[in-house]
Design goal:
With 455 residues, the protein is of the alpha/beta class. The protein is built from 15 helices and 16 strands. It has a five-stranded parallel sheet, sandwiched between helices. It has a four-stranded antiparallel sheet with strand order 6-7-8-9, with helices on one face. Bound molecules: adenosine monophosphate and zinc ion. The site of adenosine monophosphate (AMP) has 18 residues, from helix 1 and strand 10.
């Protein structure tokens, strides 16, 4: 079995081979916790979760770290604007700490509801200020930084391969086009440390060798990943929006500070979830959260199923109609499987096909197609044991039967119908069956009594 992953660095599928033996160090860029995470954010983490599950399936030992950005992410991707956390704190009349804790808890609950396997470590930017300052000091000692009126900046012209990940041209026009040059020497230079504005007091600010302030957004990921995963590690994930700025800058500062080449071996990026043709975005608002979908009657695992119908590198356009078909498919799958008996066998043929799909750059739509043809193949043996293995990657609880909540009124009709049948009053039994159906339930007569299902 050979796992191939598409590496953004080099832009091709490569055979996955960890830096050291069988252990995989994996870092996923976490969310900025100033607001609810939307279903687009969740797509990013379900992609990372599938990747982790495939690695585990293939026998690798994974150590995963995810950060929580609770300071330093400004409202523009350049180094301008307000700190998103401070802005939310002001708006909600709560402290930045409270805001971060509140939205992080909801995020964790959301992840749990889509069967996300939690990372070995959550790391918060505000809890690693010392590590970030130390890294900036290292960069300063090596001559990569300069100071302006508003902060300490990384001089990207000092790095030969700057922009390789984002395929930026020499002038870095792509990353730079939204950025005002200000006091910066180059368009692509970015803040490592920002000073608190004179005369105003921020909720979150710290002393540093350069002045009171807070870390820039990118430095947290470099400082924390190297602390927990070492100077070099295997996989870094994030959404595609991070390629040209955030990850490009992470590489520049990490390789310069740590004195390594090929800081991260494989860069994997997930495509956007769009709505109405546009990327769902926290700053634009008007998006769905998992809670809202649940309130509309969509289980979070239906959303997970929906995500698996698209390849992680392909953009998906979210609609409730698509979610409806995911709901129907998942329900049908679970219903079929609830009827299957365990024969104790493994079906090697279908398992091989499944493994081929997941090892081909996590081709989950193909893996789902394999699952469906397996389920529909009346002659195929080994369904239960084999699908249990497959579900360790799908994460859809395929073999967990749904808790059927039957209203008391319906239960009474079922009882009345049983009585009518016992009295051989077939006309009444049929009438009651119709009434039960009008209430959305179906009743079957089995050797062990009536079996009630949702229609
Ligand atoms: P943020 O909190 O904006 O930094 O986003 C957290 C993660 O979600 C990052 O990896 C983003 O790339 C990702 N992300 C944001 N919006 C979307 C979207 N519409 N579709 C998929 N991923 C997204
Ligand atoms: Zn990051």
């Amino acid at each position: 079995m050979v796992l191939k992953l598409y590496n953004t660095l080099g832009r091709k599928k490569q055979v996955f081979k960890p830096i050291k033996g069988n252990s995989v160090g994996m870092y996923s860029c976490g969310p900025t916790v100033y607001w609810y995470q939307h279903i687009g954010n969740i797509r990013s983490y379900v992609f990372a979760d599938v990747l982790k599950r495939v690695l585990i399936y293939d026998g690798f030992k994974v150590k995963e770290v995810i950060n929580i950005t609770d300071v330093g992410h400004l409202t523009s991707d350049g180094d301008e604007g307000e700190d998103k956390m401070e802005k939310a704190a002001k708006k909600e009349g709560r402290s930045a700490r409270e805001i971060a804790d509140y939205y992080f808890k909801i995020f964790e609950k959301d992840l749990d509801s889509v069967n996300f396997i939690m990372p070995d470590k959550w790391v918060k930017a505000s809890g690693h200020i010392k590590e970030q300052i130390d890294m900036i000091k290292k960069l300063e000692d090596k001559g990569f930084v300069y100071k302006t009126d508003d902060g300490v900046y990384f001089d990207t012209s000092k790095v030969k391969n700057y922009g390789e990940l984002g395929l930026l041209d020499k002038e870095g026009l792509e990353a730079g086009k939204r950025v005002d040059l200000g006091d910066k020497k180059n368009k692509t230079d970015f803040a490592l440390w920002k000073f608190s504005e004179k005369g105003s007091k921020r909720q979150q600010e710290w002393k540093s060798p350069w002045g009171v302030g807070f870390p820039g957004w990118h430095i947290e990921c470099s400082a924390m990943s190297s602390k927990y995963l070492g100077k070099r590690f295997d996989i870094h994930t994030g959404g595609m929006d991070h390629i040209t700025v955030h990850h490009t800058n992470e590489i520049a500062q990490s390789e310069s500070a740590l004195g390594v080449k090929g800081w991260v071996k494989y860069w994997l990026h997930g495509a956007f979830l769009n709505f109405g043709g546009e990327k769902i975005s926290k700053s634009k608002g008007g998006f769905y959260t998992l809670t809202e979908l649940s309130e509309k009657g969509y289980d979070p695992l239906v959303f997970r199923y929906y995500l698996l119908t698209g390849h992680y590198r392909t953009q998906m356009n979210f609609t409730l109609e698509n979610l409806d078909s995911a709901k129907t498919s998942l329900k049908r799958l679970k219903n079929i499987l609830s009827e299957v008996k365990d024969d104790g066998k493994i079906n090697e043929m279908y398992l091989k096909k499944f493994e081929k799909a997941i090892d081909d750059d996590l081709d989950m739509p193909r893996a789902l197609a394999v699952l469906w043809s397996f389920v529909r193949d009346a002659k195929a043996v080994g369904k239960i044991k084999t699908i249990k293995k497959m579900d360790s990657v799908f994460g859809l609880d395929l073999l967990v039967s749904e808790k059927l909540e039957v209203p008391v009124g319906v239960l009474k009709l079922v009882k009345d119908r049983e009585k009518a049948r016992a009295e051989k009053d077939w006309a009444k039994a049929d009438e009651l069956r119709d009434e039960i159906a009008r209430k959305g339930f179906k009743v079957d007569d089995t050797g062990s009594g009536s079996k009630v299902q949702k229609i």
